[in-house]
Write a structure and sequence with these properties.
The protein is 39% helix and 17% strand. The protein has 588 residues and is α/β, with parallel strands linked by helices. It has three domains: 287 residues, Aminopeptidase (3-Layer(aba) Sandwich), CATH 3.40.630.10; 159 residues, Glucose Oxidase, domain 1 (3-Layer(bba) Sandwich); 83 residues, no CATH class. The longest helix is centred in the C-terminal third of the chain and has 32 residues. It binds zinc ion. Zinc ion binds next to loops.
Length: 588
């Protein structure tokens, strides 16, 4: 129900909105292409024909063979493979800082440990067909599960329903058993293994947007879907956990209905204590090499779309940018472009801590996380999760949060910038040319843009949602679209190169773009605000909120106008300063 209501609202609002709100659902092809600043259009024209879908999809296929966790073989193989591809694309490995594009691997202390498994089979004793296995379900065994003794381990199966409270365990003999529950894996493990001495746990927990709960409404594919998970690492207990699909759980409960059940778990897993690693490639800036535009894709996790596609898209765009520069189709950037493939959040924090001087001069940041969805399979759309603006503080009908969940942003944390409007306009330019569907969502967090945003860098996320295969055993390369990765890659490459190289004339165009967006946004907020006040029971309270929203947007765009002054790689001209002052004066 929510989904339908929301779509109707978006169409209505999108037609009203220009600037920062993409016009979804309306095939952008029919709309005039928004004029990009001259340098951005040049970058677009230079990069677009050079994005290589084939090698980019090859990276997705390579990485999808592994459950990548920092310090495990799959993670390290992915880092090494990307490095080798970047070297063959023209990035030089280490060597002197001589202005050439270069690539290196930073290794650092890994506070956790790597894990992987070769065998993870769960069966009902006496039944040939396993309930869960690595070959079929890929990621059904929980991270941090320990190997069983040779030949596996047999144990009684005990069903505790949700298994989230003591009451669910009362009267049940848990010690040495394998416990089946519908609640989240972590709390189930605490209750069953840590507190009651179970030998292992099985959770059926799954997000509501992955599959219906009513089996009558499930497809055959949905009966086998499961979301991967982890249990706490505990060397003394040497326990294990599984995530079960609806079909596996139904088989266990049908067997329990017939009488006592013994399950057989056969696990071969391994832990790795190596260093964590980040792959870092840079195209040095010409005139302002100390200032950076940072682009990040996380490598860990087992999914094709999450996040082999982000890692692949970042490779594809870095390669296309370097090729365009080496071919003379595009000038080298004025500021340094820094591309990073790393362990999500940890790797970003490590870079900021290890390079404090560089981190202070990061101008803008792009996260690429789930950028390859074939939406005809996964559902959902491409989303630009905006740098936090007033829609991240005050829920607005025009800017719904994704089903992933809304962020928790305080008004005082908002700082206006040009990033959202510039990037959305570049994406709309791509959409107008290709029919690609682009939407935006308010800041929610949960990827590397959060780390840089907390460090004060204007940051945004390029992703897709709702993906019905999110964090599941079915997030496989057949759900990844090379065309989608090309759309995202060309768009992010254009925005990143532009923010690294814009000149004074470009800045003037950006200012006009921001002023237009501010006018549309304020008109929209006044219009939808009137509707909200009219529908409110506490009208005074609602009016107070609307005053706050308008004031926040005026502050936001005022700061965004100011940010134009530091966009040109050279000094801002007096004309530009005057134009910004005039725009500020008109803003109300
Ligand atoms: Zn991700």
């Amino acid at each position: 129900m929510i989904r339908l209501a929301r779509q109707v609202l978006i169409i209505a609002t999108a037609v009203a909105l220009g600037g920062c709100a993409a016009r979804p659902l309306v095939r952008a092809a029919a709309e005039p292409v928004p004029p990009l600043p001259p340098s951005a259009e040049r970058a677009y024209q230079a990069v677009a024909p050079r994005f290589d879908r084939v090698t980019t999809m090859e990276v997705v296929n390579f990485m999808s063979d592994y459950w990548r966790l920092a310090a495990n073989p799959g993670y390290n193989a992915s880092i090494d493979h990307l490095r080798d591809l970047l070297i063959s694309a023209g990035f030089s490995a280490d060597g002197p800082a001589d202005g050439r594009a270069r690539v290196r691997v930073d290794a650092y202390e890994h506070e956790g440990r790597g894990w992987d498994y070769q065998r993870g089979t769960l069966s009902i004793d006496g039944e040939p067909e396993p309930l869960l296995s690595r070959d079929r379900d890929r990621v059904s065994l929980a991270i941090n599960s320990f190997s069983t003794p040779a030949g596996g381990r047999r144990a009684r199966l005990v069903d505790v329903g949700a298994g989230a409270s003591d009451a669910d365990f009362d009267g049940k003999s848990i010690k040495g058993a394998v416990v089946l529950g519908d609640g989240p894996l972590g709390p189930l493990w605490q209750q069953a293994v840590r507190q009651r001495g179970a030998t292992g746990v099985i959770s059926t927990q799954i997000a509501p947007y992955i599959r219906p709960f009513d089996p009558a409404k499930m497809t055959e594919e949905q009966k086998d879907v499961l979301q991967w998970g982890s249990i706490p690492y505990h060397a003394a207990m040497e326990s294990f956990g599984f995530k079960a699909s609806w079909r596996a759980a139904a088989r266990m409960r049908e067997a329990l209905a017939r009488g006592p059940v013994t399950v057989h778990a056969d696990i071969a897993s391994a832990f790795y204590t190596g260093q964590n690693r980040s792959l870092i490639a840079e195209i040095p800036g010409r005139s302002r090499p100390d200032e950076r535009i940072v682009l990040v894709a996380h490598v860990q996790e087992p999914g094709a779309n999450d996040n082999a596609s982000g890692a692949a898209t970042l490779y594809g765009l870095a390669r296309a940018l370097l090729e365009a520069i080496q071919a003379g189709a595009l000038a080298p950037p004025e500021r340094t472009l820094t591309f990073m493939w790393l362990d999500e959040t940890r790797g970003s924090r490590e870079w900021i801590a290890a390079y404090p001087a560089e981190a202070k001069l990061v101008r803008h940041m792009f996260s690429l996380d789930m950028t390859g969805q074939d939406t005809s399979r996964t559902g959902g759309t491409f989303l630009i999760e905006k740098q936090a603006d007033p829609t991240a503080v005050w829920p607005r009908p025009s800017d719904p949060s994704s089903e992933w969940g809304s962020g928790n942003v305080k008004p005082e944390a908002l700082r206006g910038s040009l990033l959202n409007d510039v990037h959305v306009t570049v994406a709309r330019r791509r959409a107008a040319e290709t029919g690609w569907v682009v939407r935006t969502n308010p800041y929610e967090g949960g990827s590397d843009h959060t780390v840089f945003a907390q460090f004060g860098v204007p940051s945004l996320l390029n992703w897709h949602f709702t993906d019905r295969y999110y964090h599941t055993n079915q997030d496989t390369p057949d759900k990844t679209s090379p065309a989608t990765m090309e759309h995202v890659g060309v768009t992010v490459a254009t925005s990143a190169w532009f923010l690294a190289s814009a000149d004074d004339a470009d800045a003037r165009v950006v200012l006009e773009m921001l002023e237009d967006a501010a006018t549309r946004r304020l008109a929209l907020e006044r219009e939808q605000g009137a509707g909200l006040v009219a529908a409110a029971t506490d009208r005074q309270g609602a009016e107070q909120v609307e005053r706050q929203v308008i004031a926040a947007w005026v502050k936001w765009y005022g700061e965004a106008f100011d940010s134009v002054l530091t966009l040109p790689a050279g000094e801002a001209s007096d004309e530009l300063r005057a134009a910004v002052a005039a725009a500020r004066a008109r803003l109300k």
